Amino acid sequence: MARFLDVHLMKGLDGTLIRNALADEFRVTHLNIMYNPEVDQCYCLIDASTMETVQKHHDKLGIKWDYVS
Questions:
Q1: Residue 22 DSSP label
Q2: All domains of the chain, ordered by start, with CATH?
């Protein structure tokens, strides 16, 4: 597994959606989720097999990420 950090603007996202993102068939594992209220951004540290897997995980949930590395 590779480790990725992604960043999301929280517009339209809430805690329920984020909790639902924690497990799916793409085997993405959230190691840590951090929220910065000053800029309304969420930072997710995740393990996933590939960048494509990260994209599929977000697409399924309808979550746009603004940055991933």
A1: T
A2: 2-68 (3.30.70.3090)
2: pLDDT strictly greater than 90: yes
Quickly tell me which residue has 């097999």 as its tokens.
Answer: 49
What one-character DSSP code corresponds to residue 68? Answer: E
CA-based nearest residue to 8, from 38, 32, 29, 39: 39
Residue bearing tokens 């949930």: 61
Rounded distance between C-alpha atoms, residue 27 and residue 41, angstroms: 24
Partnered with residue 30 across adjacent β-strands are 46
What are the backbone angles phi and psi of residue 19, rounded to the nearest 5°?
-60, -40
* pLDDT the model gives residue 5: 93
What pLDDT, on the 0 to 100 scale, is given for residue 9? 82
